[in-house]
Amino acid sequence: MQPLTAGVFDLIYTHGLYHTGTTGIGAAIDAVDGDIEKRRTSGIWDWIDNHYQETQNLKVVSIPTANTGFRFFLKEPMDAGTKLDGMKIRALPSYNQIVASLGATAVVIPFGELYSSLEKGVVDGIVWPSVGAVGFKFHEVAPYLAEPAFGSVSYLIMMNLDKWNALDTNTQAVMLEAGHKLEQDMVGFFDKLLVEENAAMVAGGAQFTSIGYTLEQANKYFADEAMNVAVSQSGEVGEAFRDFVASRGM
User: Fold this and answer.
1) H or E segment at 144?
2) The whole model's pTM is what?
3) What integer is the mean pLDDT of 223-232?
4) Side-chain half-sphere of 34: how many Cα atoms within 13 Å?
5) Nearest 5°: CA angle at 212, between 208 and 218?
6) CATH 3.40.50.1010 given to domain 70-151+200-222
């Protein structure tokens, strides 16, 4: 984030989990209801924008969101009795609670080593966005796609604030309008893409299994931990975001 904050780069497309060392707020967006318009009318979008402007010298342009969420990709089918007891699951901080609730241990492995780690049995599974995994061929080495998928995946498109302020108001308005349109379009795009990717993975030998939770239960485990990340990384600011989101029923 520092090069963007300093103005070395103008724009970034990222996810909050990649800069939790700077702020936990971006990661916690995944815990917010994925309704694009309600995020805006409730004031949550503006809260996030103000946070990044005030603390990171960044202007939020768009928060494209995939309500297709995250899922477990497992080497073996889920057993209703033993769950994931004793297994090692590659997971980022927001997923730790749901991983632990199933009896597994969350471990950190660099992205570039995920396929080989699954192939060699270094880990028994991973938690990964439901959409996009087919391109990395994770289903070849972790062929059990666990349901339900949970949470949302909220990306961030941001611009260096000094560069933003140097733009004329018409250009700013056009960019914000395009950012809003992108948010609206991406929900349906990801939903359609999930159907296509699921079919492709099943055709490649993948099967569905269940983690044994309802969608509501899985979402709660995930949302609670995502907000915990905000609080642990951002302290009082994280608590303020958590409380603001709760006050808006989101």
Assistant:
1) strand 144-147
2) 0.85
3) 86
4) 22
5) 100
6) no
